[in-house]
């Protein structure tokens, strides 16, 4: 497993991150900056279909869906930008609490985060982000493997920990445990023609 390229060995804050003017996409995990590669065509196809299905379901609900690049900042209560060291750009983010939304993105845990893995993001998605999302109480976290056509769903338990993931294959209907009435047709997502 490889990691995305690190900016360097320095630790950065969100305030510093906001000043970067290069064309690259960055995420901060405990202050370490990781460069996020542009998504592949397959990644885009899966993301686009997921966005379409979820957006259609949320049309009459208060929850909103956002696609990357969209900053999700995790912090302790009342931390300022100079103190925030965890900023991610999930492939898809669903937020139901409008008080967490501002012009910069989302401050606090979204209800659901979806990451579509790529060869360079595997370690981040399965290890570092899983731990981060659990720590800050993201209710549901989906990891999508666009080559194997599988989805792992982690749901936050009453003890604020993720238990064993549920695994969904390409021919399944995936029902969210945290977004009412959200059911995803994975055949459509993965382009499986019936």
UniProtKB/TrEMBL annotation:
It comes from the Bacteria. Keywords: Endonuclease, Hydrolase, Nuclease. This is Endonuclease, Uma2 family (Restriction endonuclease fold). Signal peptide: none annotated. SUPFAM superfamilies: Restriction endonuclease-like. CDD domains: DUF820-like (cd06260). Residues 15-171 form the Putative restriction endonuclease domain. Transmembrane segments: none annotated. One of its GO terms (molecular function) is endonuclease activity. InterPro entries: Nuclease_put_TT1808 (IPR012296), Restrct_endonuc-II-like (IPR011335), Uma2 (IPR008538). It holds the Pfam family Uma2. The lineage of its organism: Bacteria, Bacillati, Bacillota, Clostridia, Eubacteriales.
């Amino acid at each position: 497993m490889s990691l995305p390229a690190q900016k360097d060995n320095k630790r950065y804050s969100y305030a510093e991150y906001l000043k970067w003017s290069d064309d690259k996409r960055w995420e901060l995990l405990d202050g370490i900056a990781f460069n996020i590669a542009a998504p592949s065509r397959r990644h885009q196809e899966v993301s686009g279909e997921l966005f379409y299905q979820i957006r259609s379901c949320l049309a009459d609900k208060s929850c909103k869906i956002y696609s990357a690049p969209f900053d999700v900042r995790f912090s302790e209560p009342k931390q300022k930008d100079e103190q925030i060291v965890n900023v991610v750009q999930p492939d898809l983010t669903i937020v139901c609490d409008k008080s967490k939304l501002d012009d910069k993105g989302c401050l606090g845990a979204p209800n659901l985060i979806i990451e579509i893995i790529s060869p360079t993001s595997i370690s981040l998605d399965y290890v570092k982000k899983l731990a981060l999302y659990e720590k800050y109480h993201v209710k549901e976290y989906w990891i999508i493997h666009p080559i194997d056509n599988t989805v792992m769903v982690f749901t936050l338990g009453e003890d604020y920990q993720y238990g064993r993931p549920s695994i969904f294959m390409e021919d399944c209907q995936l029902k969210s445990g945290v977004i009412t009435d959200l059911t995803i047709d994975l055949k459509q997502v993965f382009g499986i023609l019936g």
